[in-house]
Design goal:
about 260 residues; alpha+beta; Arc Repressor Mutant, subunit A; Beta-Lactamase; 8 helices; about 20% strand
Length: about 260
């Protein structure tokens, strides 16, 4: 017998959401006493939750009135969601054209908490194809999609991600030496695209390129992937040209043209 959804609820998280909703509904600053009356909990409970939310920048306190308002972190998260929705909307028609022309799997990726995450996909019509899992969190240091994101980040961000990530070898082709990896990323940035041959999955290959926003910041990557047998030396230049042209068009739609830092 499956459990009810309510059995998985975290009561403290639910309370935090109710406080955020109360602040959003009123659209004014509220004190602990006012919030306590609105949600029906003791003031000490409300205060503890507010302190936690403030530490995470989800609420902010006016130091004069001692009242609380929604924090800047919510704006940042909202902007990120809006950007992702816009990227998916703008990228999908181009992805469909790319899938039709290459007959391979097409994958749109973003960076989330130091990992790459697929937010849109079109799978190949071939019987043998690369299966893409939407929402799956994968490392940035291997595979075309991840490297096309990682290579175009600022140097300090690359260092931070590599320090936090365990560079484990998925296959014998995975680069796990930090120095070699950073040199490889510099080459990717110079060329404007990344390739991967069995770096994460045996028998799989991919080519990928970055997508930039109006600030010249890398916000996504687009990849063409499939069995290594179809990514021949003769076919590879065309695939690279196609993915670069497509990401350039998507970047242009987002207001970006070139990577301003590269």
């Amino acid at each position: 017998m499956s459990k009810k959804r309510s059995e998985y609820y975290l009561k403290s998280l639910n309370k935090a959401m109710q406080i955020l909703n109360a602040l959003a509904q009123e659209n004014v600053e509220l004190g602990v006493t006012e919030l306590s009356k609105k949600v029906g909990w003791h003031k000490s409970t409300v205060h503890r939750i507010l302190v936690t939310l403030e530490d995470e920048r989800l609420v902010a306190q006016d130091k004069v009135t001692q009242k609380y308002r929604l924090g800047i972190k919510l704006f940042e998260l909202g902007s990120l969601v809006q950007e992702q929705v816009e990227i998916r909307k703008l990228a999908l028609p181009a992805m469909k054209r790319l899938a039709q022309e290459t007959e391979e799997s097409i994958d749109l990726n973003i960076i989330s908490s130091g990992k790459r995450v697929s937010i849109e996909k079109i799978e190949s019509t071939h019987d043998i194809r690369r299966i893409i899992q939407l929402g799956e969190r994968l490392p940035l240091y291997c595979g075309g999609s991840g490297k096309a994101l990682l290579a175009f980040l600022p140097e300090e961000e690359i260092d931070k991600i590599l320090q936090q990530e365990r560079l484990i070898p998925f296959t014998s082709h995975t680069i796990t030496d930090p120095f070699k990896l950073k040199e490889h990323l510099k080459e990717i940035k110079k060329l404007g695209y990344a390739t991967s041959f069995e770096e994460r999955i045996p028998g799989s290959a991919s080519v990928a390129a970055p997508i930039f926003n109006f600030k010249g910041k890398v916000v996504a990557s687009l990849s063409i992937s499939g069995p290594i047998s179809r990514f021949t030396h003769e076919k590879l230049p065309k695939l690279i040209a196609l993915v670069k042209d497509t990401t350039r068009d998507i970047s242009f739609s987002l207001g970006g043209q070139e990577n301003l830092s590269g």
